[in-house]
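Schema walk-through. Below, the input block comes first and the output block second. Nothing else is stored per chain. Lengths vary across the set, and this one has 489 residues.
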Amino acid sequence: MVLFALLVLSTQSPLMSSITNTHYAIYRQVHLRSAKRILKLCEANRGFYVKAGQFIAAMSHVPKEYSSTLSSLQDQAVPCPFKAIREVLVNNLGKDLSEIFLSIDEQPIAAASIAQVHHALLKDSQEVAIKVQYPGLELQMKIDITTMAILSKFVAWIFPEYRFQWMVSEFEKTISSELDFVQEAKNCERTARNFERNNVVRVPRIFWDLTQRQVLTMQFCHGHKADDLEYLKEMRINPTMVAKALMEVFAEMIFVHGFVHGDPHPGNILVSPEGRRGFSLVILDHGVYKELDEGFRLDYCQLWKALILLDSHKIHHLAERFGVGKYSRYFPVIFTGRTINSKSALGRGMSTEEKRNLKQDLSSLNMGDISLFMESLPSDFLTILRTDGLLRSIIRKLGVSQRVRMLAYSKYAVYGLTVKSVAESDHKVESALSKIKASISYIQLRTFIDIMDLLSQVEAFRHSLIKTLKRILYEVAHFFHGNSITIKP
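--- output ---
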């Protein structure tokens, strides 16, 4: 039902634009009531349902009643009683809590889909955050996955164009690794190594002697959600700088490291007022990661370079390699908001004519085409689409142009083609030459972007000037000839 609600909600925006203010108020009441019901459903069933609720909360195009109501699922879901949590801790750590901790807060500081987090002090007074998996969760997830598989097959049998089996398969792979906190700790340390030279990224340190499959103990880091505008304003932190830093961090993950955090919702990215730039980004929840195939990583770098240049031949060639050549013309729309033949500058959206042509083109697609497109994509692509969708949402909530996102992607796509996919090359000379080559390539690409931007502004100015001159001529003609005029504005 949550998935069904998600599909329905994603169609609401066009409808809402065509109703009256009175009806709009009624729609808002209905949306709020429905959102509260979905929230109760997610909190009651936990696990997969909370994850589905988190996904809806991060979507920018659903009615705000849903995104605001369900945002609590990102870190403030209904917690599990501490008595059950204590049992999980003792079973995993093998000692009474009083032997390990000076104190531990029974009220969690965060509660989400698979675990809740408690603040504690070790015997040496170090602050730690303890992530504890909900008891009985593994069995519940197996039941949820089986239920999803049965329902997806049932839906596909009744409506052949609605094929969701690929989604169940991807979710099963993701959740199996996410339930292993030892693997999450390894992911955390690998990310910390990848960004050890980056002064804006903070990754919590792992306490291995207090980490097991269901318990993860890490350094406690202070901060607020990345999309908390009131907090940023209070701390005098520029949202644009936060957005730029966020996008560059994840662009580096995708295009250079090939090791991608798959769940960057606002609850997993904190902004701390500490750092050389006046703030730092604390990256949490390292359970969902995707290690990109090296061939795919390089192809994806090439795709973004082609998207910036609007190289239709290259885009089609890469789409063929991804297994979706039939839909290559939609790649620029999906990633940059431009059509394949667009004359618009990067991040400036589409012209009225482009929107009209795209709408006509999309009218020929049906749900079967969408299902085929998603089924045909490599699994690496699906992770990137989800990660990119969540990042876009954060950028929007910060009130920052998507151009920031696209510039970061274009920059690191070029770096990813010239720099090795590890944090540092084995040879300093080779590494330095690669970085110089990458910088030159990016300068060339950025120059192209700026020239296209300038041409777009000149074209906009030309249209505005022509419109102004026509209006002046119309007024002059009207002054001298009254109604008998031939010049039209």
